[in-house]
Design goal:
Strand content of chain A: under 5%
Order of helices and strands of chain A: HHHHHHHHH
Shape of chain A: globular
Distance between the termini of chain A: 44 Å
Helix content of chain A: over 70%
Radius of gyration of chain B: 18 Å
Number of strands of chain A: 0
Helix content of chain B: over 70%
Largest sheet of chain B: none
Number of strands of chain B: 0
Order of helices and strands of chain B: HHHHHHHHH
Largest interface: A-B, 24 and 19 residues
Distance between the termini of chain B: 29 Å
Strand content of chain B: under 5%
Oligomer: heterodimer
Structural class of chain B: mainly alpha
Radius of gyration of chain A: 20 Å
Number of helices of chain A: 9
Chain lengths: ~250, ~220
């Protein structure tokens, strides 16, 4: 009996929250909090990282771009995973909000991947002596960027949103195969890019004085990117639900 | 019996439409014949450049071979017929890809191994290369079919754009296999890896492609 009630409550909650209208009003309430907290954390982390951490023994001050590059690289891959999960939710349970979210993540993912590539290039000059190297990690990240652009072009080429969402979802799920390749590229191939410094299984190879601000930067950056995803998803909701009364009333 | 009929139909279609299978093979031959002209003719340079050129030209030729693989069936109503009837669309997709591979992938793999003898004067490496090319051509064919099914009515450029990133891991494995052949090390590991990839996608992708085609028809 209790189990059945729990299932009904969960279903009701999912059903309600999966409605674009509920999502829209909920994220409207969440957005300012998320923005200000994430911004404060990120600014604090950047100040800590730039001015209060020791300089690196080998790289000197140039390593400080880590507080920008590492969060961007990590979030670029995480966004793809989130997009693939949203796509799977859409295809399996036909939750249209999941399709809106997947579509709204794509341009943000492309932007963050570009930031990761650009900041990596800038970091490459003092450490490797080159802007670009056809190295496994860098090339696979570039492929991720192209994948994001391909997904956006595929969706944009169809006027029928339902069809576009389905095709977009199939491609994003299949494209997920790139993520473990990017992640493991530094281990599988001899690479100029250093191996992962922070892993789940091993102790981080970065000194705690540099590691803590890096963790904070990652949290702050993730929050800021989540804010952009919220804005992007609201745009998608405006476009898709423009004929609904609640959107007209809201506008 | 029905499977044989589909295979026969697809074979007949390809035989009648010579351009669809002979065109890619001829383009492959032209690339392989033309590339030595761009390299200074010392045997070292030629053999160094041979494998990358071979793999990239195979990739391009497979891209060309699948350019409008489903379009004609979409326009003449064959796909719609499958959609309405109880027949399995994924089975048809599987057989269609298989027939294309027989007509295009197998000859190109044979030619690739043959050109390798010309470039490297080494029969043993050609015999090692041949199964890898057979598998790689099939994988490329399936992946490009997937891309072209996504962009069925929107032209092959979009299909290629969205599929090309998916083929790059295969190219990386082929590159590793090439190194393994040259230095005579752990060649079978990469061949098994390619075979493993093929054994997954050979069954999974026809089902996915059929779902995508159904989306276009809905």
């Amino acid at each position: 009996m209790l189990r059945e009630i729990l299932i009904i409550v969960i279903k009701k909650f999912i059903h309600q929250f999966a409605s674009p209208k509920t999502y829209f009003y909920q994220v409207n309430r969440l957005y300012p909090w998320l923005l200000y907290i994430s911004l404060s954390i990120y600014v604090f982390a950047i100040i800590w990282g730039l001015f209060f951490t020791p300089k690196d023994f080998v790289q000197g001050h140039s390593y400080r771009i880590i507080y920008f590059h590492v969060p961007a690289s990590f979030i670029a891959q995480s966004l793809y995973a989130a997009m693939a999960i949203s796509s799977a939710v859409f295809l399996i349970w036909r939750v249209k909000l999941a399709a809106y979210l997947a579509r709204s993540i794509a341009p943000v993912g492309a932007m963050v991947t570009f930031i990761a590539l650009a900041s990596g290039s800038i970091w490459g000059i003092p450490t490797w002596g080159t802007w670009w190297e056809w190295d496994a990690r860098i090339t696979s990240t570039l492929i991720l960027f192209i994948m994001y652009l391909g997904l956006i072009s595929l969706h944009n080429s169809f006027n029928n949103f339902d069809k576009a969402d389905k095709l977009f979802s199939y491609l994003s799920i299949i494209g997920f195969v790139q993520i473990p390749i990017i992640k493991k590229s530094v281990d599988w191939w001899s690479s100029l890019h250093q191996p992962a410094s922070i892993t789940i299984s091993d102790k981080p190879s970065i000194d705690p004085s540099m590691l803590y601000p890096l963790f904070m930067a990652m949290i702050g950056f993730a929050g800021l990117v989540a804010c952009i995803v919220i804005l992007s998803s609201k745009v998608q909701i405006y476009i898709r639900e423009k004929n609904k009364n609640w959107v007209k009333d809201y506008v | 019996m029905e499977l044989l009929l589909i295979l026969k139909n697809e074979a007949l279609k390809l035989v009648k439409k010579t351009r669809a299978w002979l065109g890619p093979i001829l383009i492959f031959i032209l690339i392989m014949v033309a590339f030595p002209l761009t390299v200074e003719l010392t045997s070292n340079n030629l053999s160094d450049a041979f494998y990358p050129v071979l793999f990239i030209s195979i990739l391009l030729v497979m891209m060309l071979a699948t350019e409008d693989i489903f379009l004609e069936d979409y326009e003449d109503g064959t796909l719609e017929l499958f959609f309405i009837s109880e027949k399995s669309l994924s089975q048809w997709v599987f057989l269609k890809i298989f027939m294309h591979w027989l007509f295009i992938g197998v000859p190109i793999s044979l030619l690739g191994a043959f050109f390798n003898i010309g470039a490297n004067n080494d029969l043993a490496s050609s015999l090692m290369l041949f199964p890898a090319l057979l598998i790689a051509t099939y994988i490329f064919l399936i992946l490009f079919c997937f891309g072209n099914s996504l962009s069925l009515t929107k032209g092959s450029v979009l299909g290629t754009l969205i599929t090309l990133p998916l083929t790059l891991p295969i190219l990386v494995v082929l590159g590793k296999l090439n190194t393994a052949i040259i230095f005579n090390i752990s060649y079978f590991e990469f061949l098994i890896l390619l075979f493993g990839i093929l054994s997954i996608i050979i069954f999974a992708f026809p089902a996915i492609i059929s779902r995508i085609i159904k989306t276009h028809l809905e």
